[in-house]
Amino acid sequence: MPRALPWAELAVGLNQEDIDLLLVSFKSFKIAKSDHVPCTVCTNATPHNTRKRLLRCACDECRAAMLYARCEWRGKLLKCEQQDLLDLSKVGSHVRTRRSPRPPRMTRAMQNFAHEMADQGLKPARIRTGLMRKFYLGPHTLLQLKVVQRFLSETVGANDYLDGLRRMVRETAFTGQEQDFDVFSFTWRTEEDGRPYVGSGADENPFLVGVSSKKLLRQEDRNPATFVLHMDATFKFNHVDYPVFVVGITDCCRKFHLMAIFVSSQRKEIHFSEALMALRKVYSQVTGKQLAVRFAMGGADDAQYNAVVRVLGADYEVEVLMCFYCVAAKLHEKTRKLHHSLYTVVTSGVHDLHFAAGELEYEEAKTRILNDWALHPGLESFKEYFKQQWLTGRF
Length: 395
Hints:
The chain is an alpha+beta fold and about 400 residues long. It has four domains: about 10-90, no CATH class; about 110-155, no CATH class; about 175-320, no CATH class; about 325-390. The protein has helices spanning about 15-25, 60-65, 110-120, 125-135, 145-155, 160-170, 215-220, 270-285, 300-310, 325-335, 340-355, 360-375, 380-390, and strands at about 10-15, 30-40, 50-55, 75-80, 85-90, 185, 210, 230-235, 245-250, 255-265, 295-300, 320. A seven-stranded mixed sheet has the order 6-7-10-9-8-11-12. A five-stranded antiparallel sheet has the order 1-5-4-3-2. The radius of gyration is 26 Å and the shape is globular. The two termini are about 25 Å apart. The model has no long low-confidence stretch (mean pLDDT about 85).
């Protein structure tokens, strides 16, 4: 059971405007976690929830002073969902009291004004211009366009033009009459007339649309033992809008073949599962065969793993592989404080494991490397972590 932190109350029972004024005086911070918990803010006896947000220091000055550790300052913000009451607490202190320059942020008045302009159907660029004129913002206080876009996308949801997008998806929906290189859209859920169903993007009604062609889908029509299915999310295609799922296969020559691209509202298990179910359905419609996968690879994400096992592993035995970049990134995070000589021992050992030619060579290399790490007292904790996480875990 985690130990209780000695939270120091800074404000109790304040409204949102007063809390905003108090938060402005803080050094730069970010919301590390947001969740619902039973309310302890108000005195209402009716069971209800409060929004709990945990804050962490994001100040560049503190980060520069502690390169290999986090600043000890934390904040906790509790907001009752029935009344306009908030509690604010903190624990720990900043490494440095000096403040780093903070980028311009949207105040509560700016957010309300953006709501009003979004209700009129204005685009983020025009809303940003309206904020500049309304609040007399200069070059150094004007919000970046991506800040306005992110706020409207996450809070207002008025810049996604869902009606136009739904119409475009319906017009390009898969019918079976397309040529090999014709691009079409598809979804797992359908309307009553058989057309793709486009959700609103809410948690209870997720948005997910796939795009592919017959030629791309038929590239997977081969022996399941000769390819690896890849699925991962990227934000480079759309910058600050919805995440994109890229699904494809890698053949024996290490050549990547794209199968489909999905646009989704979030990256939860339900979204990955729906994407794979939609892919399996349209693949069967195009090829007349079931989507058979023997090996699948993704990131170190529970949502991806559970979706692959649940959907692709329902009819076939699927072995989920771990992306080596994720392994290398985690190992670098765990070993960056080690001495250079120990760091070299670890990386060379992991390199030998990754490039083992077969299972027998892999087992021999694993035994040799673990025995080698046991000779170094400084690698005791890392050795146990590596065995538990990467050698005996689910990957």
